Amino acid sequence: MRRVIIVSGLLIVSAIILGVIVTSGNNPFTENADNTLCGSQPTSNTATNNETNYQSLSHEEAEQTAFKFMEDVIAAAPPTNDEAAAQRLYNTLSRSAKTAVNRSIVSHDIANFVLIQQVPDQGVSVEDIQVVSPQELYVILGLNYSVGFTTRNIHLDIENDRWKVNRVSITEQPTQVEMYGNLVRNNPGLEPDKWYFVYEAPGAPAQTAELIFTPTSVCSTNTETNACNLDLLEPGQRAYLIGKPVAPGVAEVLQLIF
Length: 258
Fold this sequence. Notes:
Strand content: 35-45%
CATH class of the largest domain: Alpha Beta
CATH topology of the largest domain: Nuclear Transport Factor 2, Chain: A
Mean pLDDT: 80
Number of strands: 15
Number of helices: 5
Distance between the termini: 95 Å
Helix content: 10-25%
Number of domains: 3
């Protein structure tokens, strides 16, 4: 039995019987299997720091980091050239990533880093997140263009208790696409005198792709197949496109079936 008396802020303990205090369900110490008292020795945090840091950094924070990073890429690019955005995106890079991006010409180097030639004029969207390990994941961002859609994988690592952008990769693109849609030409917002293909993608509004015709492009009907004669094409025609992606929002025509 141990009596604890508090007098003027001083704790005086008088132990009549040495032993473990046993109380009903409110004892801060418990005995383990080898009769040592849990909590009697300080616990080292060194081995669990990384795990704790990872657990405190949510996937939502990783998504926000990747999303804001790409928004800053857009803002830092010409013609806006937002210097504050350039500084933010540079601060978001990991130490290794900063070796590939020169701060003094960040708006130039960052385009190569994120593997784009033009910034998405219709904004960015979070498509998915994939966990690689407890310390690494990547966020799949959708880059939305007026003439199409593509994705980039933003790889993030934990560095100094923060999600940092380490690198950017491209998801392997299909070598061939097939879809139903309609031919359009000289529509508002599209480049004049070029043929485009308007189609629908699952879970997305109508998409537009520029069509590139080559000498090997063929057009087919129920009765014949010939090299495509652009003079015979009509805006609004319904067709089945077999094409090859050559750039975001651009497809080379292999075959058009009417």
